[in-house]
Specification:
This protein is α+β, with helices and mostly antiparallel strands. The chain folds into 2 domains: 91 residues, Roll (PH-domain like), CATH 2.30.29; 55 residues. It is built from 5 helices and 7 strands, in the order H-E-H-H-E-E-E-E-H-E-E-H. Strands 1-2-3-4 form a 4-stranded antiparallel beta sheet. Helix 2 runs antiparallel to helix 3. The longest helix is centred in the middle third of the chain and has 31 residues. The radius of gyration is 22 Å and the shape is elongated.
């Protein structure tokens, strides 16, 4: 059983499960490449210029700085991306985030009064955007970097419409897969 199924009621059906768009991982990947190149260059320079214990101390310092940058700017964003879940079921919208501090919000379909999306030119090229959900009792909630935001918007609108009409919602015959297509 994967993560989304763990939080569902026994007769609740998963319609969509997404992580944020991969564009969130672009800067960590660039940081990994640049930091590795700089650490390799610094290590090579130190190996050629320094001797003895000075060389060892400087190489250890370069390694410590490299590992710190890797943990802070590469590993942490990837773990954050992997631990962020946007889930739509036939009854509610769930958002779960975090590893050490876990946060979540559930919005029942019957409470959703409006669903909107927003994406600029760059987001449209990447196939991502911001999903805006207004519920009947709070300010709009915005979820950035939702992959295939237009399809998610349409699916969520359909789910809300089905709940309003009194249908059971998702029939289990289809739904949006992780690649933006209908299955």
């Amino acid at each position: 059983m994967g993560y989304p199924e763990d939080v569902l009621a026994p007769d609740e059906q998963l319609v969509l499960h997404r992580h944020p768009h991969w564009k969130m991982l672009f800067l960590p990947i660039v940081t990994l490449i640049v930091a590795t190149a700089l650490a390799g260059f610094a290590g090579g320079l130190i190996s050629r210029k320094a001797e003895g214990t000075t060389r060892s101390a400087l190489l250890i310092a370069v390694l410590v700085v490299y590992l710190f940058i890797l943990g802070w700017r590469c590993v942490a964003p990837v773990v954050s991306w992997k631990s962020t879940h946007f889930i739509i079921t036939d009854r509610r919208v769930l958002v779960r985030q975090g590893v050490l501090t876990h946060t979540g919000i559930d919005i029942p379909m019957s409470r959703i009064s409006s669903v909107q999306f927003r994406h600029g030119l760059f987001d449209r090229m990447l196939g991502t955007g911001t999903l805006i959900i207004e519920s009947s009792s709070s300010e709009p909630l915005e979820y950035d970097d939702i992959p295939a935001v237009q399809q998610v918007h349409a699916l969520l609108y359909h789910q809300v419409f089905e709940v309003e009409r009194g249908h059971s919602g998702h029939s289990g015959r289809g739904g949006w897969d992780d690649h933006g297509g209908y299955r």
